[in-house]
Amino acid sequence: MSGSINCPPQPPQFRNDGLRPDEHRKLLATMMRIRVFEERIADLVLEKKIITPCHLYTGQEAVATGVCHALNSDDYLFGTHRSHGHYLAKGGNLKAAMAEIFGRATGCSKGRGGSMHLVAPEVGILGTSSIVSGSMSISVGTALAESIRGSQRITVVFHGDGVPEEGSWHESANLAAVKRLPIIFVCENNLYCTHLALDKRRVHDNIPEMAKAHGFKTLAADGNNVLEVLAAARQAVKTARAGEGPTLIECRTYRWRGHVGPNYDVDLGLRDQQEIDAWKDRCPIKHFGNFLVDEKIMTRAEVDKVWQEACAEVEQAISYSLASPYPDAADVTKNVYRGAGQ
Amino acid sequence: MTVISYAKAINEAHRQLLATDERVFLIGQGVESPWCVGTTTLGLVEQFGTTRVIDTPISELAVTGSAIGAAMTGMRPIVFHPRMDFMYLALDPIINHCASWHYMFGGAVNVPVTIRGIVNRGNEQAAQHSQSPYSLYCHVPGLKVVAPASPYDAKGLLVAAVRDDNPVLYIDDRWLYQTEEEVPDEIYEVPLGKGKICREGADVTVVAVSYLVKEAMTAAAELAKQGISVEVIDPRTLKPLDTDLILSSVKKTGRLVIADPDNPICSLGDHISSLVYGSLFGSLKTSIQRVNLPDCPVPASTSLEKAYFPNYQSIIAAVKRMF
User: Fold this and answer.
1) What pLDDT does residue A5 have?
2) Active site residues of B
């Protein structure tokens, strides 16, 4: 059961930092699209209409949204088994992701990848890996490639708080730092690695210190505060584009749902309801919406309209997916290789 | 054409690839060391600089993964492992990632990386410094595997590997580094998936891999003196295998010896056996004979190494069992 480290601090504190109104609206809309996407998938998994294991991003929306707002469309993004939010925030096609999750031929990976393997090269997503830490070394490689080319493209890799417990994270961090590569590690510390809480896995709650030891610059942001995440990301992006080496941003946040699937892991005795409720009170979307209304950046009606638009878009994607064909069984071994015979 | 060594042929392939294709870079441990990876990277840092000829920490996983990531962006990296034994630390990026990537994303992203694994056995280096586990990689869908046995093939297969749009594991063998033959001065490819008949014969086919090709040629010369005509086939590419070449030879001779210097169980030799039994069962004059490493880790002592690694005598004995 969770310990005291998992009790959330105060609600997210927003500061009006002079973003344009359309940027505020975009941040809200992106978070809402992710939220609706994930919560509808939870329903569909319970209804057994979706089979692929879905690791839902609900509660963490501010992290992907804030970071991706600081990126260019052609910057690279790598993610994890829990990457629906990263994919949507970076600009991946929502319909193609939904169809992939439904196992359809129209999916972004043509039904070969499922929920954990989304791809959108047109916006810099060369594929998400479901091996914990699997993206680390590969993302160092895209950063290395652009460094050799001398381009301005940077790489962002999202990873959970369990990943620094893998050797791969350390090797990748060291290599990125020693070669001063244009890369940002975004550690989404949601306090759990599958079933196990942070304090059961680590003596010290010090992931940024480990990155610093490897030669990274480090930043921290409230992972439920999209403006704070964005500000940190902009700083890290500037560092990376200037050729000043890698940065790790730790964003403390919380996934509402269990490790995988639509449930909350309370029934399994892994988390307690009080902890979940306390984090739900810190909802990144609710608080940001309230801030926009309080600051008179948007009206309540406008905020509600953004939500309704997200709902409509997701329903359309579900209908599109259900109407899409399954992949042709005759093609099951297609695309093992690029080129001749495929 | 110039007579050069196998090591020099690899060096020349690297140099010409770097000179002719700006997407190519070389990354691995030891390019700046005084030994230059058995001389195969000699002079490359000086000519192309440390941006494209990159020495690294001993981080097999991260270095291999970074080459894979770079390949996904359209670069043509060659990542090398001075000993294949250490490459096991990179199995996650190789198998879970680069081999699966093109399929797992429906063909959206390909990974044109060349992974050079170097077999460095002998001299009492023991179990963790002597392995040649190419069969393991042949098992993996999505990888191509080549194992050149001559200077000509060492150069041409490396060029073809780098130019291929898929991940290719290129396995070179330190025991062959001093072997010399005439090699074209210009850049050329030996096509992937095509084996060659190294010596024609009528009585028995020997399919030999890597250093055992040379041993098979010695064995064939000996056996010819005894009236046995041996056809020696070097598949060169282990995956995809040139099955037509092997089957047509065995169809002609009716006898097959498979000489592959890897552990025997679930191996390339097993695969070729099953292929030949499955296709030519009725045409075989006798059962297939195998020359392998034993199902045992590699020992250190020279006396045990002699018992462990097969040579031309092992191949002669296998052939003689068939008559």
Assistant:
1) 47
2) 60, 129
B170, two tokens: 């290129």
Token pair belonging to A123: 């916006």
The CA distance from A317 to A174, in Å, is: 41
Pairing between strand B144-146 and B237-239? antiparallel
Q: Measured between CB atoms, does B253 come within 8 Å of chain A?
A: no
Q: Does B279 touch chain A (CB under 8 A)?
A: no
Residues of chain A found within 8 Å of residue B97, distances taken between Cβ atoms = 129, 131, 134, 138
pLDDT at B35: 82
Alpha-carbon distances of B274 from A158, B232, B241, B281, rounded to whole Å: 45, 19, 13, 10
Residue A9: its pLDDT value, please? Answer: 67
Q: pTM of this prediction?
A: 0.96
Residue among B61, B88, B145 with most chain A CBs within 10 A, to mutate: B61
**Would you say A285 and A256 are in contact if contact means Cβ atoms under 8 Å apart?**
no
| Cα end-to-end distance, chain B, whole Å | 41
Residue B73 and residue A146: Cβ atoms within 8 Å?
yes
CA atoms within 13 A on the CB side of A247: 23
Query: Whose CA is closest to A119, among A133, A143, A138?
Result: A138
The minimum CA-CA distance between A107 and chain B, rounded to whole Å, is: 9
ipTM: 0.95
Q: Is B193 helix (H, G, I), strand (E, B) or coil?
A: coil
Asked if the bond preceding B82 is cis, omega within 30° of 0, the reply is: no
For an interface test with A, the pick among B104, B113, B194 (most A C-beta atoms closer than 10 Å) comes out as B104
Predicted pLDDT at A4: 45
Contact A138 B144 (CB under 8 A): no
Class of residue A18 by CB neighbours under 10 A (exposed 0-12, middle 13-18, buried 19+): exposed
B58 at the A interface (CB within 8 A)? no
Q: Are strands B24-28 and B76-81 parallel, antiparallel or unpaired?
A: parallel
Q: Do A335 and B144 touch (CB under 8 A)?
A: no
Tell me: the pLDDT tens digits for B252-271? Answer: 999 999 999 999 999 999 99
Euclidean distance between the first and the last CA atom of chain A, given in angstroms as a whole number: 51
In the block, tokens 């599958």 appear at A194
Beta-strand runs (E) in B99-255: 114-119, 144-146, 168-173, 180-183, 196-199, 204-208, 230-234, 237-239
Whole-angstrom distance, CA of residue A50 vs CA of residue A28:
27
